[in-house]
Amino acid sequence: MTDSFDGPPQTPPAERASFLDGVRFAFGTLTVLPARITRWDRPAARTGMACAPLAGLVVGVLATLPGVLLLLLGGGPLLAATLTVAGPAALTRALHLDGLADTADGLGSAKPADEALRIMKQSDIGPFGVVTLVIVLLLQVAALSEIYADSWIRGALAAVVAAVAARLAMTLACREGVPAARPGGLGAAVAGVVPRRAAALIAALTVAAAAAAALPMGLPAAGRSAAAVLAALLAAQLLLRRCVRRFDGVTGDVFGALAEVAATTALIVLALG
């Protein structure tokens, strides 16, 4: 998610948006999957960002397919992990990775908030962004490779859990009280739209679903899956606090960075088992 997307024309405001409007908003802004956004207003953004983990579920499932197929055909776990990590990047036009790089450049610039935001908006990537991208992608591939080496089922589940946790981090970052760093862009459109109670409920349901999905592999696996989501949210929250203090709010780039940090943290926790 970045600030380069201005969205379709504004629609007349309404108090509520339908679930379908929210799903279209979530998939239309967070993925490249065909989803025509029918509403671009605060109610649609509220429902859409609440549906972000659902978009993560679809992205995660699609991302695992080439890696799992490669393993079943006799390929190695490293190659399978690389293909799986490339999946979310392809399904999001690498916007979240771009947001991670821009956020790293902004945080590393040591400039005042307005100058840091200007650096983040530039099209080029600085040294902080390059190093951060390399480290994060290496961590994701290394962690997922270890999990795939143990079991393709564990690897597939880990990729899905990481993708869901990444979008759940966005949902929590859209909760009430989190300000936008600047008036324009997608970050401003979704900042503060999700009620705190709704965000907490969605987080609790997602943690429970992650544990339930891993339960067939045993209680330790279920506990580790839940812990991975919680650790991902904690890491994202720490980054969110830093960005809000540094930039006086959030931007689309920050949301992308939160997603990548959450996904990486989840994979590392799942690899520890």
TrEMBL record:
It is a multi-pass membrane protein. It comes from Streptomyces virginiae. The lineage of its organism: Bacteria, Bacillati, Actinomycetota, Actinomycetes, Kitasatosporales. Its main location: membrane. This is Adenosylcobinamide-GDP ribazoletransferase. InterPro entries: CobS. GO terms for molecular function: adenosylcobinamide-GDP ribazoletransferase activity. Pathway: Cofactor biosynthesis; adenosylcobalamin biosynthesis; adenosylcobalamin from cob(II)yrinate a,c-diamide: step 7/7. The keyword Transmembrane helix applies. Coiled coil: none annotated. Its EC number is 2.7.8.26. The gene is cobS. It is found in: Cell membrane. Its cofactor is Mg(2+). The chain crosses the membrane at residues 125-145, 151-173, 194-215, 221-240, 252-272. The keyword DNA damage does not apply. It comes from the Bacteria. Belongs to the CobS family.
